[in-house]
Amino acid sequence: MAGERNTNTPAVQGASQALDQFKYEIANQLNVQLGGDRTSRENGSVGGEMTKRMIQFAEQNLKQGGRI
């Protein structure tokens, strides 16, 4: 619904600021302006890319014997 705020909470306390920064870095790299006046495809492409990169990071970390 229009005007609703995101109520998702990060799994790691205090990670909100880092995730927000990551979101805007990805948007910049994809040349996407985030906002309520943008299409779901534009905004969703940023979230999809964030997820893709976080999974890649976790897989590499696990492959090297690290922990997530």
Gist?
Helices cover 56% and strands 0% of the residues. The protein is mostly helical. The termini are far apart.
Please give a structural write-up.
The protein has one domain (16-63). 3% of the residues are buried. Helix 1 (16-29) packs across helix 2 (40-63). It is globular and about 45 Å long. With 68 residues, it is mostly helical. The chain has two helices and no strands. The mean pLDDT is 86. The protein has helices at residues 16-29, 40-63.
List the helices and strands and how they pair.
Layout: H1 16-29, H2 40-63
Strand content: under 5%
Could you tell me how far the N terminus lies from the C terminus, measured between alpha carbons in angstroms?
Answer: 34 Å
Q: Percent range for helical residues?
A: 55-70%
**Main sheet overview:** none
Mean pLDDT: 86
Q: Count the strands?
A: 0
Shape type: globular
What key phrases describe this protein's structure?
68 residues; mainly alpha
